[in-house]
Amino acid sequence: GVVPSKASFSMHSILVNHFLRGAWYPKGGAGEIAFHTIPVIRKAGGNVLGNAPVQRILLDSQGKACGVSVKKGQGLVNIFAPVIISDAGIFNTYERLLPAEARALPEIQSQLRMATHGEGGFTVFVGLNGSREELGLEPTNYFIYAGDDLDEIMNRYLASSREEAAKNIPLLFVTCPSAKDPTWETRHPGKSTLAIVTFAKYEWFEEWKDKQVSKRGDDYEELKKTFVDTIMQAVFKLYPRIEDRIEYISGGTPLTNQHYIASPRGEIYGIDHNIARLQAEAIATVRAQTAVPNLYLTGQDLCLGGFVGALQGALICGSAVLKRNLYADVARLKKRTQATDSKK
């Protein structure tokens, strides 16, 4: 999520090494992750609530986290627990959900000073009439760049006006989720999907932040459409057969991310995972344990951006809560699994 001059070489090397051997995709789509995780949580005595946004973290008289207050209809419901784990991100957890007296703790202020917001994201989701074979789609992630000097083209883009930026997008990530899913054709015959991601500054859309979603006005919709049109012209060069086969297309700005996933400034990878974030002091300071007893952090902000980064954050957090090295447990599980597989 950062330009090369701000990226950690070691972290990027690990990422490249991973993708050299290919990538994984869940059969049935990303929703299968939640579908199979929720029963495990419930079997252990927990529960998963939908449409219940957390409004604040509750503290007891000693300043210890003891629960959360969630929205239910027009009212609030308090849910109490001995351990509170936040995947809402550092800024949301500390600045939105904690009361002022906890937010002012020196340890929390130190963490906030070390963190900066990641860049906002712009997404395009496309529904297509036609199968993977008909449209020439591939189960491949494409990164499309407008030039070789990634620092220069991205810095120029992010420094430009929103009108200029919308017509000169230097970086696109293009993927075809339906082509990756071996169950897709059975479930949705003759249909396909594309997802495209790029970066966009929150400031370009900030003037509409207080407007209701889907009712932000013609100027907002026109700016969003210009971004989408520019993006799709590049995608048509990659997949020319799709141009007259689009049944659905939707663009999402940083404000879309802010509304649906509560990212403070429309970021998709949490805080900025630049070199400063990966310095020893920052890594030692931003930990799963917080200055508020019984409150823990997990997810991308604790480790790295992306699904695997968030998963690492969960392992780190789980280890802290249980006071047990879950990485050792995973290593032992891998050995047992390999031993079982070798006997088949």
From TrEMBL:
Broad class of enzyme this protein falls into: oxidoreductase
Subcellular location: Endoplasmic reticulum membrane
Enzymatic reactions: all-trans-13,14-dihydroretinol + A = all-trans-retinol + AH2
SUPFAM superfamilies the record matches: FAD/NAD(P)-binding domain
One annotated GO molecular function: all-trans-retinol 13,14-reductase activity
UniProt entry tagged with the keyword NADP: yes
A single cellular component GO annotation: endoplasmic reticulum membrane
Necessary cofactors: NADP(+); FAD; NAD(+)
Keywords: Endoplasmic reticulum, FAD, Flavoprotein, Lipid metabolism, Membrane, NAD, NADP, Oxidoreductase, Signal
Membrane topology reported for the UniProt record: Peripheral membrane protein
The enzyme's E.C. designation: 1.3.99.23
Membership in a protein family: Belongs to the carotenoid/retinoid oxidoreductase family. CrtISO subfamily.
Protein name: All-trans-retinol 13,14-reductase
